[in-house]
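Thread: Modeling a multi-component assembly for a lab meeting

Hi all, long-time lurker, first post. My supervisor asked me to bring a structural picture of a complex we are working on to next week's group meeting, and I have zero experience with this. I have the sequence lines for every component (576 residues in total). Could someone generate the structure of the whole assembly? Inputs are pasted exactly as I received them:
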Amino acid sequence: MTGGQDASRAQPGGRQVIAGQQADLAQAGVPQARVGEVGAELKDASATRAEVCIVACAEAWRGDGEIAASPMGLIPTAGARLARATFEPDLLLSDGEARFVTGTWALGQPPPGPVEGWIPFRSIFDLAWHGSRHVMMSPAQIDRYGNANISAIGDYARPTRQLLGVRGAPGNTVNHPTSYWVPRHAPRVFVPRVDMVCGVGYDRAAIAGTVARAFLDLRRVVTNLAVLDFGGPDHGMRLVSVHPGVTVDDVVASTGFELAIDGEIPETRRPTTAELTLIREVIDPSGLCERELPG
Amino acid sequence: MSEDDVIARLRSGMTIGIGGWGSRRKPMSLVRAILRSDLRDLTVVSYGGPDVGLLCAAGKIRHLVFGFVSLDSIPLEPHFQAARQRGAIGVTEYDEGMLQWALYAAACRLPFLPSRSGLGSDVLVVNPELRTVRSPYDDTELVAVPALPLDAALVHLNQADAAGNAQFLGDDLYFDELFCTAAEHAYVSCERIVPTAELEAGGLTRLRVQRWMVSGVVEAPNGAHFTSCSPDYERDEVFQAQYVAAARDPDLWARFAATYLSGDEAAYQHAVAASRAGATA
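Re: Modeling a multi-component assembly
Sure thing. I ran the full set together rather than chain by chain. Output:
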């Protein structure tokens, strides 16, 4: 149930978050008296690329309701915290160790709490198999149908570059929604064929059968250049929006396979002033995301 | 028991499970004892961290069963990377949850457990011995994760009594009791051995490793170093960074090994303390 949160703050629509912004910011620990001031100050300031990406990552969890958001990496983590602080208040967020914690807190800092649940690794598997989770992973390679590699590059028996291992990617992808974050959109990441299928894509799931396909739900791929999804033919990757300052040609040139591109591609939505305030004052006051993604 | 008493009960070629997770609460003093031993050709099963890296560097591993190998705050384990990139070890790479299932099947004395995880991925391609199974209830096809029985398990907990009842005091048990129950013999190292009467005060629900699972207990203060053993101590990030830098350079590694890995556990702990004193002087 959503008892821990103020249900009236759940905004059904896409862009109506502003209505809840005072409450959001108050819950997030921003002194309310300063909101108007800061908002006004930021009105004409443009968001950085990192901030656009944080919001694009946050959007991945829109509509998810009361499930665990499991971001991997700084910008996805900032995005998940932003989503909960604004339009998706019922999300569960962990401290990266074994606790579900409430509130909104800064990257690199311990959460002030309170703690609302115990979530050791074993319970994370339970959560995954139950389907009540939406993970955002960061692949070394991803292909047109969403097969993703985090294990090893090159020949499997003797890789040219050993990475982490498959981790939970095979299980995550066939059990619950999965999104991806790629901080450097490039042909070496967006490849025609990944070297090791860790996260399962639509084509491979279709071959594997009904169980593999039942809960496969690849939502979006956020990169430093664009937002993509799997709404193309046969669940192929499709360009959804390009970030301010990026052209469709930039994205095409940085992608090693053919993207579905339907008509005019809009610009990725820019952060609202309330979102910028949350990011700059609460979620990432020391600018860690800017360091990860300058510009 | 001492670390060396445990190692004396192990044999080359055994399948050995190592508890903890990544660079968290690893039985490092037991791993260091294996490094000093003449054990070889081990099959190691681990949610891997520097345990796997060090054993790779020492050429102790013939085959590794893993879901990942990571140092957590430093994502990639350099010795494990090097061993894989040389083709020096055989691997069985599972989804993390499949590895849990494999241990749990062994612990329950079942031949396999059915799993959705793994379907569609290359885990089934690189491990061609894996089979699927058809559900007799709804005709769906699932991965049959085979039981993974261990000859021995090595885990490190915060405290234990002399009989082998052991308690984790941090936030996560990880899969330590599964490693113990999947194993023919389990050996627990701990920060301190306490009287049985003191265990309940540490929290009844934390008493998850029990003497029926355990063949021997080793008192090993700071035994998980340089991995974390919360709340007794956190990961030694400075030392871990030093380990990683050394592992990436043969000359530095020779020096690191001479400084830290050429003596017994007491010598290791002494060298670590000396290095800390040097850093703060």
